[in-house]
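FW: tagging you since you asked about this chain on Friday. Here's the raw sequence from the shared folder, copied in full. Didn't touch anything.
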Amino acid sequence: MSTEALPNVKFEDFAKLDFRVATILSAEPHPNADKLLKIRLDDGTPEGRQVCAGIKAWYDPATLVGTQVVIVANLEPRQLRGEVSQGMILAASDLKPLAEGTAASGDAKPGVDERDVVVLTVAKPVKPGSRVS
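HL: got it, structure written out here
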């Protein structure tokens, strides 16, 4: 994983992203994907939303229920292996130190043994749907 910065973006482009706080109401393994969880969110709207997140290797679905996370609320919905995903839960990925005698595996994405993935949460409870800025 590279620590090099991506090119700068104009503030106007950044401002198009809608970051919100959402509370996880339920989480379960995606029925058609080994690495995804299907997550139901209270995002402050009457209907809520569903997202699919590639965090199954790092989280037991039951431990996520009640957690407040940061989402990108205005991504276009897309189908992920037969389930609709209506946004994205933000997460940080941190490479673990390599064990002695092992080598990085080229361009392959690091697996669960080589990195940690941590969903972004809030420090204290806020109302679902609150803007993040």
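FW: The chain has one domain: 11-96+110-119.
HL: agreed, and Residues 11-96+110-119 form a domain with the OB fold (Dihydrolipoamide Acetyltransferase, E2P) fold (CATH 2.40.50.140).
FW: great, closing this out.
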